[in-house]
Please model this.
Amino acid sequence: MQTVTKGMLAVLISSLGYGSLPILAKLALEAGVGVIPLLTWRFVFGSALIWVFVLAARRSLPTRRQVLGLIGLGTLYAGNSLAYMLGLDRVSASLASIVFFAWPAVAVLLARVWIGEPLSSRRVSALALALIGSTLTVSSGVGGGDVPGILLILLAVALLASFVVHSDSAMHDVPGIAGTATFLTTTAVVIALSGLLFGSLAVPLEPRPVALLTAIAVWSTAIPITLFVIGIQWIGPARASIFATIEPALTLSLAALVLGDRLTTLQWVGAGSIVAGVVWLRLERPTTDSAH
Model:
């Protein structure tokens, strides 16, 4: 199989894994799993599986100096993950997925503010499309009284955008998969500590919640992260990013099929605007990529 084809398949499978996360998480929350135990399980076992791959494949490891930067990234990613999952617990999987997908445009704005990256006309128009789309998408959620959930999703968007901007320097010359395993391990530790301090890490030891948590750790964490990094190596970040834009469509389809989610006409218009903005942005070279 040609390298381009393998890379495309790797990214598409990765997107399917990521796109399944909101649905699996919703089902786990409904099965009685708490937000912090869910995230702890996700990152402890997800990062452990990636470490198994790193060690089995004898991949290079980050240096001590690089580890310090990765710890900072992992802490930031923990905040993003907590905000997203707390928001997802309050709003539909479709609404959360579409609004969250606007993060690349927000990252462009933060990159301008923090590291002085230029705002080209393409970037400005992509940002405008994404922000207009987000406004349209959340409108019915606000009307339905889901303001706290929407604010949490928007906070997650801002935190992930911050993560992406900072990861450009923190991940520079860092072995991709081992670096990802390192910051995800930090994420697991931070979330587990928050659970010990403010709540509980206990999960229902019943077949359904355990199966859902296992699927989240393997299918929606370890596999998509590893495949996305490999896909970038095979086809480059620009192509990988463009192929990854299928993710919200997969999430919306799964949410409709499994959870019965439905978007209003206005939200569909907003979703289209966000996707158009992100695709327009990612057609530009170079582009910045991240884990979810």
